[in-house]
Amino acid sequence: MFKNIYAWLDERLGFDDLYKGLLDRPEPHGNWWNTLGSASLFLFIMQGATGIFLTVYYTPSPDHAYDSIQYIMNGVAFGWLIRGIHHWGASLMVLVVFIHMLRTFFSASYKYPRELTWIIGSFLFLLTLGMGFTGYLLPFNQRAYWATVVATNIGGVVPGVGPFILRALRGGADVSALTLSRFFSAHIWMLPAALAALIGVHLYLIMRHGESAYPDADD
Amino acid sequence: MNDEHKKKVNQKYEEQLQKGERFWPDAIYKDLLVSFALFILLIGLATFVGVHPEPKVDPTDATYVPRPEWYFLFLFEFLKYFPGALEWVGAAVIPGILVVALMFLPLYDKNPFRHNSKRIFAVGLMSVIFSGIVTLTLMAATTMSSLVAVILGVLVAALMFFSLYKEVSFLQGGIRKSVLWVMTIAIVGIVGVSYQQTAAMASDEEEVHIASSIAEKMVLGQDLYSIQCVECHGADGEGGEITITAADGSEEKLPVKSISSNDEMYTRNDGSLFDIIAYGQPNLGMPPFGGAYGGELNPSEIEYIVTFMRYTWDDRAEVPADAVASAIPVLAEGEVPSYEIHVSAVAKRYCVSCHRDGKENNDYIMDSYAGVVSGGKNAPNVVAGDLNSILLQTIQGTELTGSDGEIIHVMPPNGKPIKDEYIDIFIRWVEAGMPESADEAAALSVDFAPADEAEPVVEETPSE
Predict the structure, then answer these.
(1) Is the ipTM beyond the 0.90 threshold?
(2) String of b and e for B57-80 (b: at least 16 CB within 10 Å)?
(3) Fewer CB near the terminus (10 Å): N or C of chain B?
(4) How many A/B residue pairs have CB atoms within 8 Å?
């Protein structure tokens, strides 16, 4: 019976081809450092899942952001856990992505034929930092507010385009409700969408070229 | 890069695939293991470390020292070296160049070799940059001196460098291993010590109270109410009368209506209470309390006061079970009150509003045990075992004459005596010898030892 169901599904979905194409691939001998890419992906998924739960209760307005997070922490069942994971996951993701990048650099895996994988990867790193930057404001507490004031001020010191950058980031002259809604929409839509798309390209390139081999003395 | 080299690379890769492993299950189990370990780590961090609570936004508080997320700290530290007009070089130009350089690395790194021994420049440069990032982060995040931070940064980079470079000629076998171990232990040691120092310094800093539950908000709000509001509004929000001195020196008496009545509680929501406290009521003689309008309260503190008012006076509010702690504890029959549990709670609520620094109170500051027992111009205002102590007489409605001939008024001065049960707390406390801690009081509950150091009520002790 199950065999029949499996055969029927396989005929239409192609499990065997998927297995051969995705999982049963040959690979050079890897080491533990090579797990950091998949760990980054795992953390991205964790951040996505916990982030989606957080949006259920979070309100991106200056009047309610702080209180809605207080409610998540104290009122919602396991809200503290979801927020705790999201909070620490952000730090951990930056760390893991950064070490993954260092590993790629030191094993020179970015060289032919994986140049594009590196370039996409460096965009992913910048987007991850962008997620950290925009997410930092969302709790709208003292720390978040003042860090964003200072950080956006730094954007404003660039000669010429500085004032434009400042206004574009803040949505006005000051850090306000507009800044919060901008950062919120960047944090939950623009940056994650860009991240997800680029992760797709990154993964495609990895499958196309295979995992790089650790260089030996001849390389 | 020529075609011949590309062919060589591809050929080599094919060979490595031949003697390699399968993605499933050889490689993926490592991936899953690492991801699972991270998952456990995250749950551990969320459960046992949690998220540090921060106060609500207060845009008027310019004294707040902002701190970015730790992974941006190195950039902030770096910016300190580019003061004034040069700031944009440190803020935009150098990071910009580094980011572009990082991004397009494969396009200009034409070195065809991949092994570290054949790309000394690239590995060396990255180690220097990494060392710089570590050093700057340490300088920003800890209290360690710059020198220690630099040494640590170099150590970390060197450790990384040497663990990658297996072929350094003078570092082989046992020497190599011991060098790596010594470096690792040194790093862990220095980080540990500096973390301890930083933590010790952080705990010295003034701790900000952040309430998470309604009960905590009520406690904090009650303390704030006692200090900021009781003088005019009364300990139970009953109101009274205030005297306003106009610019021309004339005095005017204004009534203060009750703020704890149902009328008040039913017609004002939390938002309007918040606004009134923040803006004040200039026409009615109430000054603004919000930091934005020249007061001394931040938004969180005003919110605590509002929470305290709502849950204490609004008969529609359902007080959470754990909020009982905020009430003044009731004294059981035969129980001896202590300063710690009972007297301080009553004093906080009914006395400290005036009997604190900067108020007219004959220097009788009631916010500590020592202050209550031995403070004041007419000290001692209270003597163990003496039921004619100044404090006990004034709260029971007797006006006295102090040592300097001045009248000591009935307390509290608004003419509304504190509740009998609170007067009873004071009397029983003095009777039992004014125990400070709950333990002392408990010991006294068993046998009533009369105080032996009873002294005259009003002593000739002129004090400042």
Answers:
(1) yes
(2) bbbeeeebeeebbebbbbbbbbbe
(3) C
(4) 230
pLDDT one-digit tens code per residue, B451-461:
444 444 444 44
Separation between Cα atoms, residue B250 and residue B246, nearest integer Å: 5
Cα dihedral value A119, A122, A123, A128, nearest 10:
160
Q: What is the pTM of this model?
A: 0.74
Cα–Cα distance, B144 to B194 (Å, whole number): 6
Rounded CA gap, A134 and A151, in Å?
Answer: 11
Instruction: Measure the CA–CA gap between A125 and B69, rounded to whole angstroms.
Output: 16
Q: CB pairs under 8 A, 24+ apart, for A55-60?
A: A55/A188, A58/A138, A60/A138, A60/A180, A60/A181, A60/A184
- DSSP summary character for residue B389: -
Q: Are B262 and B315 in contact (CB under 8 A)?
A: yes
Is B185 touching A (CB cutoff 8 A)? no
For B371-381, b where at least 16 C-beta lie within 10 A, e where not — what string? bbbebbbbbbb
CB contact under 8 A, B67 and A119: no
Token pair in block for residue B382: 């209270």
The residue of chain A nearest to residue B16, with distances taken between CA atoms, is A28
Token pair 């032919």 is found at A112
Set out the domains of chain A in order of their start, with CATH numbers.
33-209 (1.20.810.10)
What is the block-wise mean pLDDT of chain A (219 residues), using blocks of 10 residues? 87 83 81 90 96 95 90 90 95 94 91 93 96 94 90 84 89 90 95 97 92 82
Chain B residues lying within 8 Å of A151, measured CB to CB? 68, 72
Could you tell me if B230 and B283 are in contact, meaning their C-beta atoms sit under 8 angstroms apart?
no
Cβ(B43)–Cβ(A81) below 8 Å: yes
Contact list, B59 vs chain A (CB under 8 Å): 145, 175
Cα dihedral sign for A110, A116, A119, A124?
negative
pLDDT tens per residue, range B414-452: 666 777 888 888 888 888 888 888 787 777 776 544 444
Three-state DSSP class for residue B196: helix
DSSP B80: T
CA dihedral A112, A117, A119, A121 (to 10 degrees): -140
Q: For position A69, what pLDDT does the model report?
A: 92
How far apart CA B269 and CA A173 sit, in angstroms, is 32
B269 is written with which tokens?
């929501």
Task: Name every chain A residue with its beta carbon within 8 A of the beta carbon of B269.
Answer: none
